[in-house]
Amino acid sequence: MRLFVLGGSGGTGAHLVAQALDAGHRVTALARRPESVPRHARLTVVRGDVLRPGGWRHEVAEHDAVLSCLGGAGRRPTTVYSQGMTGIIAAMRECGVRRLSCLTSAALELSPAAPLGRRLLIGGMVRPLYRHLYADMAEMERIVAAAGDLDWTIVRPPRLTDGALTGDYVTAADRPLPRSRSLSRADLAHYLLGHLDDPQSRRAVIEISRR
After folding, report:
1. pLDDT digits (tens, 9 = 90+) for 30-73
2. Where in the numbering of this chain does the NAD(P)-binding domain appear (predicted)?
3. Domains of the chain as residue ranges with CATH
4. pTM over 0.90
């Protein structure tokens, strides 16, 4: 496959690019600092900013899928997710690419069956503290869900770690996992790469967690 990866120099994006290349795919990675992305014969690195799609939107052409690993942890108001996704979808439509996968967070929706401590921590502390970030993620999810002409998947991971790739994780479609645990960025990348041909993940919100 030919994959277009946004955020390819970030934590999850770097794992995704490496795993895709190891699997024999061809990858185009958008990065603000191309020098931070290791070189490879099947890798094309494009310098660009997701908020300025004019400089990279034509590069999306002739790819089989677009995967967005954009992320942020700041507490200030942001439009990286929503504005960035608006540009991504416009580029995909212009170039005739239909398959999209992107990341938000499991903290957007908590299962009533989740442990009380987790509900208090996420609902009472984390979401209020990072309210701007989560508001922009939620807006991005609305933008993606409204793109009825695309085959999209929204992936909601829990707290991410720098742990090893295990391949041992669980997922749930269109419902929160009752006991979401942390997940390594390597395992998240493994799912992102592996689910692209899974019809059950298309036009679905997928929660994921280590087992």
Report:
1. 988 888 899 999 999 999 999 999 999 999 999 999 999 987 76
2. 7-199
3. 2-210 (3.40.50.720)
4. yes
